[in-house]
Design a protein that fits this description.
The structure is a single chain. The protein has about 750 residues and is of the alpha/beta class. Strands 3-2-4-5-6-7-8-1-16-14-13-12-9-10-11 form a 15-stranded mixed β-sheet, sandwiched between helices. A two-stranded antiparallel sheet has the order 15-17. Helix 5 crosses helix 9 (about 270-285).
Amino acid sequence: GVEVDWKAVIGSGRRMVDLPTYAFQRTRYWLESEPVAAAEPVADSDDARFWHVVEAVRGEDIGALADSLAVEPASLAEVLPALSEWRRREAARADLDSWRHSVSWQPLATRTTSTTPGLSGCWLLVADEYDQAMAPAVADAIRRAGAEAVTVRVDPARADREAVAAALRAASAGGDLAGIVSLVGTDDRPDAHRPGLTAGFAATVVLMQALADLGTAAPLWCVSTSAVSVGTFEPLDHPLQAQLWGLGIVAGLDTPANWGGLVDLPSDADDAVLDRFCAVLARGDGEDQVAVRRSGVFGRRLVRARAGDGVSDRSWRPRGTVLITGGTGALGGHVARWLAANGATRLVLTSRRGDQAPGTAELLAELADLGAHATAVACDLADRDAVAALLVQARADGPLTAVVHTAGVSGEPAPLVDTGLDDLAATLAAKVSGARHLDELLADEHLDAFVLFSSAAGVWGNAGQSAYAAGNAYLMALAQYRRDHGQPATCVAWGAWDGGGMVDAAEGARLARNGVLPMAPEQAIACLQQAMDADDTSLVVARVDWPRFAELYTLSRPRPLLDALPQARPARAGELDAADAVTDDVTVGLAARLLAMGEDERQRELLRLVRERAAGTLGHPTPDAVRASRPFRELGFDSLTAVDLRNQLNAVTGLRIPVTAVFDHPTPAALARHLNSAMAPAASGSAMPGSARLDMLPLAAVEQLESSLAIVDGDEGVRRQVADRLRELLGRWERTDEGLEGISDDDMFDLIDRELGES
């Protein structure tokens, strides 16, 4: 926006020529910021005087504070710095508290009355061919619930995509399936060809891929046994099966229409438990992460975990030798500096490249300046023998006191149907195999700490990252498993760290757009210190814009995981908000005018509105850049911009269209036709579809009328005409009992525009 003196730039004696114009000439694509004026408190307000005191404390302005409190400045010389420091400390603690969450299991209402809907249709039960107990018991329970059960046997050791697809096709040849239950994930044995995977995990992946090949629309439910713990009263016996949960959570994101859910059962489930399991299958309320126990049914929830909620007065400090896997990476470097600054005298940093990793020499020198002797060692954590040798080397100069496992790779996002088992095994190798080897080889070691760096992807998933989510879900289960066996363990599932480590720059930008914001490393380390001080078993530490995250996360289906977070609930629950509600005069007027139009005219106006609002959402100055026939995806729409456009169109039309409408009706012209179709019943006086909010228009119109009447001046003639017309309308209402449906749009607008227009 600044004029340039080009002669001063290029010198004299040069000839200036005009460049040809181009499509984006003088179009600005950055946000313009304007200074925001601070609100001035009322001068004589008690609150204003209080905030003056707060500002004085914040700025350590002893003179202003003394004046506000009417005391001598000398009396505040000692207390003010302490008070100011306390305020900064408390503000920082509150900030960190907002990042801390944990997974909780909350009782669900069970519906076991005689009128409770049961199962129906045909259910396919996919089971390990060696399972002689669980599969028959589950099949019997499905039949008791009122449905037909057909069992398909799979040998996990020899399962391949084509063979499983053929078996499923043969079993379902009799008709449509109501649902599919998989028990194959309960096999903890190593896969015959890929020891880094369990046979059950590999078989579940193959099953999901085979179902995708068949195009099966029936929802898939995956069963685990004792892979989660719903409370301190029960142990977690099968941490490896927790990988199934990470896999399933991502499946619910990638293929929401074909996903049923995850259910964890006791290893010795009886008939009562299995009957509850069938009731879960029949619920139909979106609960897709459930544990069934003899004591009841529990749903998985994410809850706040404030640091002050725990009871602990210890301050954990490292000592002796600490092993850091992935120690030469960004996360490992932050951890190493923290440990060195807090008492660790020897650090062993491992990575695939060891001291040849970029930046390692500088890191080792920095750690030496902090007082720690550090060495970098190359080690493949997927190789058990290599890990055993590493531990021998780590103990060479003294006992090993702690392990921090930060190693792992996320891999490139890809649909599960296009991902081979070898690729999955490679992604899981360092994170899962490395953690398993460390856990087993240090089982008899008396450690002060065993810290696992997980990712929030293992808690709420990340589209296209099945293996990564599975590995991180396992780490959280492993921490609980170790605790159940009297061993130390703390697992932190992190969000995005600023500056790299958990995610690269591109992935970090994508996560930020989705509401997962980057955390400063210093603050993340402070959260880790809190977790160690409190001796937490597992914790989710993430900086999240919950309204934004929840709206996108629940785009395609309900996600009860977020039900216990008040800040996420309104967007997720679909409650009427400012963007959706018909609440103001402008909105009511626009929606009513659209209803009053003929169908062809309304179609043209809606197309204009769609193009106009789409252009605004994408940052174009005019609707010309949005052609009616061009798909939204080609125009640059993603899930975020789809939400914005949906909100705007809902506000203008009074409808409650879902976000998916932008992609279900892929062009502006198609979306305008959909909106016109949705508004047509109201325009004709018929009942609106369940998704619409135009049922609010009659009452809103009366409220608008009341507001408009308030501005009528004292002209007695006008007031008498309005009163007569209102009596006439009220008489028609009472005579016909039709309510406002008996009043035409012309009547209402004639009243507002003609009668009040004379005033």
